[in-house]
Amino acid sequence: MKDRLIGGFFVGIVTLVALLTGGIVTTCILAVVSIIGIWEYLRIYSLEKSVFAFVDYAFTIAFYALIFLNKEFLFFPAIIGLLMVILAIYVFNFPKYMDHDVAKVLFIFVYVTVLLSYVLRLREMESGLYLVFYLLIASWGNDICAYFFGRALGKHKLAPKVSPNKSIEGFIGGIFGAFAIGIAFAMVFPEQLPFTVPVFGGIVAAVAAMASVIGDLAASAIKRNHDIKDYSSLIPGHGGILDRFDSVIYIAPIIYWLVRLIEMVF
Fold first, then answer.
1. Per residue in 23-34, pLDDT tens?
2. What does the angle CA 107 – CA 109 – CA 110 come to, to the nearest 5 degrees?
């Protein structure tokens, strides 16, 4: 329990610093977190020290630099460039690596770096300082509400083969809890958020909360595929970066594009 509390405190401090500061500090923190996440994932396939890994690390740094410099038009060329480099490594080291190694390395970059980079993109929006709290509402707020609803009412398993403790009742309760918190947050900060009516804040939180469960279950399914408990032991009592930020990785682009859609339509 002591290790878990210390680890939770560390994660909380890093998360708040990354979300509140913005600019170069947030960029650097997210780049480091992404590199660690890639390292954790590549360890599953014993590729964390391969040339593939260092290419992923280098492109991660470059990708965050593009965001910081507002060069979004280079995102897609960067991903294509990564694929070309990976294929070149595959060819000139043949038959050391297999074709599925190429797919793994590219997928891990997109899953960790590209998806997590939306935290920075969300933070850099005009209302970013307040919008990033929807990441916490949809992940941590949803988890807390789902836990209490599940304990009180949970009878039907949501995905028993992946996560036996999650219930359908907890899933629904977490979504409604996030919806309520999202509305309340929008009502407290009406001038700081881009929502014309508070219910939009609830919708963003609810949709993202629903998605956060998928992100959590996806990360758990990957671990079960490979018979591992945690991605690493980096955070005492909590596992690794991917164990703690699995839902945030998944929901960051969803919140970003929902907010953009609301801004454009309303």
1. 999 999 999 999
2. 65
